[in-house]
Amino acid sequence: MKRINVIRSRKGTTLVLYVIMFSVIAACASIVIDIGVVAYKKADTVKATDAAALASAQSLFYGDENPVVVATEYLEKNGVDPDDAQINILDDGKGISIKTKIEVSYLFAKLLGFDSGEIKANATAKVMGVTSVFKDIRPFAIEDQEFEFGKLYTLKEGGGSGSNGNYGCLALGGSGACNYRFNILNGYDGELKVGDYVETEPGNMSNPTKSSINELVNDCDHCPECTYSSFDPECSRIITVVIVDSLDVNGRSSVQIRGFASFLVKAVTGQGNKCIVEGYFVKNITQGELSEGQKDYGLTGVRLTE
Ligand SMILES: [Zn+2]
């Protein structure tokens, strides 16, 4: 009899141990599931907040839409209730800050007394000047000045104008009319930085200028036609050129880069060697190195700083 009692006692102890082990495993599993759900939602919230800040800062730069409305729409579209977010335009007017705070109800951890977890996502996106461009640079330079959006600027002078044989053309990645024409049509793909020196390309080069610029203009088949206030950024008429300290140089000379700007180029005017290239100064966003200290020449980038 004594032996039977011992066996029963062992069975009872084992059962209790099983119950305890099961409870511990169930508790751990519930916490792991809830932590997983929170981590998943956090990743989504961070992505949504970042995307909203970038899009909103971009609209702030272009000035054509209300940036707070843009941020609100982006958050909603990505599954975040805009009521859970604080959207602010930075004091200098060159960026957007979004602070999102969401409460997530736990599913299983409630059994252990934990009701909910908190998710926070902060994003600040700033508009900055471009200090380095590494593609699609056209072989024209324009002197540093205060540019006005929508105004027409001369990118290449006609014969009789210019300065000591220079008409505003650059020798990028090589020299000569053939290289110049290639760069007008395709853009120079080497990297150019603010502070770098580039060589001018002296000579009028009327024929290659006229044929290539008019090709770019004719390649725009957008409807309605692109204008300085409404254009497709990929349009063949949108070109990036170099802003330099001065073009008052003699023959083939070095000029220093101060920045980069975009223009909507128009068909060449003037006959023969009087051929002139003009473009409307536009706001545009590009990829490249950015810096808060860089002067804004209308061609900028947007970057997350938080
Ligand atoms: Zn176009």
Walkthrough of the structure:
This protein is α+β, with helices and mostly antiparallel strands and 306 residues long. It has two domains: 2-126, no CATH class; 135-287, no CATH class. It is 31% helix and 29% strand. The chain has four helices and 14 strands. The strands form two sheets. Strands 1, 2, 3, 7, 12, 13 and 14 form a seven-stranded mixed β-sheet that branches. Strands 4, 5, 6, 8, 9, 10 and 11 form a seven-stranded mixed β-sheet that branches. Helix 3 packs parallel to helix 4 (206-218). The radius of gyration is 31 Å and the shape is elongated. The N and C termini lie far apart (75 Å). It binds zinc ion.
List the ligand species: zinc ion
Instruction: Please identify the structural class as seen in this structure.
Output: alpha+beta
Give the number of DSSP strands: 14
Distance between the termini: 75 Å
Strand content: 25-35%
Number of helices: 4
In short:
The protein is α+β, with helices and mostly antiparallel strands and about 300 residues long.
Features:
306 residues, alpha+beta, 2 domains, seven-stranded mixed sheet, 14 strands, binds zinc ion
Chain-wise SSE layout:
Blueprint: H1 2-62, H2 67-77, E1 85-89, E2 95-105, E3 116-133, E4 137-143, E5 152-156, E6 170-171, H3 177-186, E7 192-193, E8 197-200, H4 206-218, E9 238-244, E10 254-265, E11 277-282, E12 284-285, E13 289-291, E14 299-304
Parallel strand pairs: 4-9, 12-14
Antiparallel strand pairs: 1-2, 2-3, 3-7, 3-13, 3-14, 5-11, 6-8, 8-10, 9-10, 10-11
Zinc ion binds next to loops.
